[in-house]
Write a structure and sequence with these properties.
Blueprint: H1 8-15, E1 21-22, H2 25-34, E2 38-44, H3 55-66, E3 70-76, H4 97-114, E4 123-126, H5 128-131, H6 136-142, H7 149-154, H8 156-163, H9 170-173, H10 175-190, E5 194-198, H11 202-216, E6 221-225, E7 238-239, E8 242-243, H12 253-261, H13 268-275, H14 280-287, H15 294-310, H16 312-326, E9 350-353, E10 363-364, H17 365-372, H18 378-386, E11 390-392, E12 395-396, E13 403-404, E14 413-417, E15 421-427
Parallel strand pairs: 2-3, 2-5, 3-4, 5-6, 9-15
Antiparallel strand pairs: 1-6, 7-8, 10-13, 11-12, 11-14, 14-15
């Protein structure tokens, strides 16, 4: 990238790795240096919590506020009734109004941890407020007439579905028009001039910019972040035992902490830049650590991210719990953190894996249960997991085929079958 931004916000986006594309970098930079810029990201209400896969976008809104601007978190109470078809191979199941309202309330709790909504410093909006009341014919005349079907068919998110000869319903096809209308409406209501999102939203963002220009005669901007995967190619937001939720009632702070503690060595620097506010010079020092010392950087990462999401006390407790569960100590003594260990390594059967036990993709959860002796065969392991009787690090495992990379065994992995049978999987 050759352009050197003058605004603090864009400088953060560039130096910390948030920026993929921008529709007009110089124009946005100028707007950011002139005054407060309202900017939004939309979140469809598909569950009662967001997961780690949405955390990059949440951090972008947080940085927008920290650099003196106004974030708008847009809840998709209206668009969730359709579901974003972008790069999906099938149509989403339709949700009831009651389910969507419950999900919106749960997601609101996530944002309260990261963004200050007091005194108008930020806005929590819901597109159901304007989409639910639209009259069909007037909407078609006012908005639909401004969209070219030829152009809509040219977007990669649509082409990919059609090229695979997979059905794209007329309901889903409307999603990009409604999302574009969101930008125009937020511009009209709140003076919003910036939409951000993942790079898969580029087409939708460009549509919104064009519609805002046509309907409101407004100059607005779009900015996208890269779609993030872990160094082993796994999708961000997934762990060995399922989605990594941001609400404590769906994933405990301890399990959340463990997810970050088990970060792959190659991802430590990147995750520190994206998911914490640690200064860049300190991150450079941490990511340069080698061998066992990199585990110290992973603990710094886990503590920082957990403290932001669940509070400093929860992060400290999670680290202490990890020490008490996984650090071998003498029975009846304390572990140096002032806590008596509840589970000792010596009290659980330990199975040591070598690198030869892993394929290029890792080793499956079902295989781990067989290797641990908790299941006799792969078939019985699958039956245990699919029946909800298997846990990985005290969380119910749901997918027998979920792969675990050897890097995820930086700490022993605790397996549980039923209520009382446990085993530890170690590497080496």
């Amino acid at each position: 990238m050759t352009y050197q931004p003058k605004s603090e916000f864009l400088n953060v986006m560039v130096t910390r790795g948030f920026l993929q594309d921008c529709t007009d970098m110089a124009g946005l930079d100028q707007a950011l240096t002139k005054g407060v810029v309202p900017g939004y990201i939309g979140f469809d209400a598909t569950a009662t919590s967001l997961h780690v896969g949405s955390l990059m976008q949440i951090m972008m809104l947080r940085w927008l506020q920290k650099t003196g601007h106004q974030p708008i978190a847009l809840m998709g109470g209206g668009t969730s009734k359709i579901g974003d078809p972008s790069f999906r191979s099938d149509e989403r199941a339709l949700m009831s109004d009651e389910t969507i309202a419950k999900n919106v309330a749960g997601i609101h709790q996530v944002f309260d941890k990261y963004i200050d909504f007091s005194d108008g410093r930020a806005i929590m909006a819901n597109n159901a407020d304007w989409l639910d009341g639209l009259a069909y014919i007037p909407f078609l005349r006012e908005v639909g007439a401004l969209f070219s079907v030829n152009r809509m068919l040219s977007f990669e998110s649509v082409k990919s579905r059609l090229d695979r000869e997979q059905s794209l319903s007329f309901l889903e096809f409307n999603y990009m028009i409604l999302q574009a209308y969101d930008f125009a409406e937020l511009n009209r209501r709140y003076g919003c001039v910036l939409q951000m999102g993942g790079s898969d939203q580029w087409g939708n963002i460009v549509n919104g910019i064009d519609l805002s220009r046509r309907m409101n005669e407004a100059q607005v901007f779009g900015l996208t972040s890269p779609l993030l995967t872990k160094a082993d190619g796994a999708k961000m937001g997934k762990s060995a035992s399922g989605a990594v939720w941001l609400n404590a009632d769906m994933l405990s702070p301890y399990e959340f902490w463990q997810f970050w503690r088990n970060t792959l060595d190659a991802d430590v620097g990147k995750f520190l830049r994206l998911y914490t506010e640690i200064p860049l010079d300190e991150i450079a020092r941490l990511e340069a650590l080698q061998g066992q010392e990199i585990n110290g950087a992973k603990i710094v990462l886990a503590n920082a991210v957990t403290a932001m999401c669940h509070g400093a006390e929860a992060a400290q407790t999670a680290e202490a719990t990890a020490r008490s569960v996984f650090v071998e100590t003498k029975a009846g003594t304390e572990d140096g953190m002032g806590l008596a260990p509840t589970v000792h390594v010596s009290s659980l059967p330990s199975i040591h894996l070598t690198e030869s036990d892993f394929s290029d993709r890792g080793i499956s959860i079902a295989q781990l249960f067989v290797r641990s002796g908790l299941c006799d065969t792969g078939k019985s392991a699958r039956r245990l997991i699919e029946g909800g009787g298997a846990k990985v690090n005290d969380r119910v495992a749901t997918d027998p085929g979920q792969m675990v990379a050897k890097q995820e065994l930086a700490e022993p992995l605790k397996l549980t079958a039923g209520k009382k049978r446990h085993a530890l999987i170690k590497l080496g």
